[in-house]
From TrEMBL:
NCBIfam families: vanZ_1. It comes from the Eukaryota. The chain crosses the membrane at residues 34-50, 57-80, 92-109. Keywords: Membrane, Transmembrane, Transmembrane helix. This is DEBR0S2_15808g1_1. Signal peptide: none annotated.
Length: 137
């Protein structure tokens, strides 16, 4: 397992900004676009924070934490602790959409990058499962 410190720092700072946006008494004109963008950025940063040997396991962990727990749970928590915010199911949909788009983008990018490096013969930390997958491509 490898932890990328720069991504941890960026994730922490971005999370503070997201927390402020989620709890502050401010009105944003394009609220749904902000939800989509924030969850896209947070999920992307979280996805690239850790590198495990089993990428499928990490994909599942990221999906559960970012999409299900944060994407859905944050709206309930925001409603419970902030007197300025109201519950909006549309926010949950855009949170989940932003997180899902980030997951798909990151997975596709990782596969294309790994495939490119594999074809060039460079070491990229492929596990046996990935090597078998790329032999069929």
């Amino acid at each position: 397992m490898r932890i990328r410190r720069n991504f941890v720092i960026a994730l922490f700072l971005t999370s503070l900004i997201a927390l402020y946006l989620g709890l502050a008494n401010i009105s944003i004109v394009h609220d749904k676009i902000v939800h989509l963008g924030v969850f896209f950025i947070l999920t992307t940063l979280f996805y690239w924070t850790v590198e495990l040997r089993s990428q499928r396991t990490w994909n599942l962990v990221v999906f559960i934490i970012c999409t299900i727990v944060a994407g859905i749970g944050s709206e309930f928590i925001q409603h419970a602790i902030s007197p300025f915010r109201t519950f909006d199911s549309g926010d949950i949909i855009t949170n989940v959409a932003g997180s899902t788009l980030a997951m798909l983008s990151s997975i596709i990018y990782r596969r294309l990058y790994t495939k490119h490096k594999y074809r060039k013969g460079q070491q990229v930390g492929l596990n046996l499962e990935d090597e078998m997958h790329f032999q069929h491509l």
